[in-house]
Specification:
This protein is mostly helical and 86 residues long. It has three helices and no strands. The protein is flat and about 45 Å long.
Length: 86
């Protein structure tokens, strides 16, 4: 038997610190303005860029809610999207 003790904890996931900024937060904040700028520089009308990015954001939010089990919130979001598209 070995007498060496492991210094690793049983849970390797990082502990969330309130107020800390992660890569995921920064990527979300940077991605949408970057995509909008690239599309505008590519010649896409600004009036088409805003709804497209809004729908992409809504899809991302609904995926997060689906993964976390928020079915009621997804239903409300879907109803909102359907009403805004009319």
């Amino acid at each position: 038997m070995s007498s060496i003790k492991s210094t690793q904890s049983a849970d390797p996931s990082p502990v969330f610190q309130p107020g800390s900024i992660s890569t995921t937060h920064v990527a979300g904040v940077v991605a949408f303005p970057t995509l909008g700028t690239v599309m505008a520089m590519g010649g896409m009308p600004v009036a088409d860029i805003y709804p497209l990015l809004g729908i992409c954001g809504a899809i991302g939010v609904s995926a997060v809610f689906a993964a976390s089990g928020g079915r009621r919130l997804i239903g409300n979001l879907a109803a909102l999207l359907l009403r805004s598209g009319q």
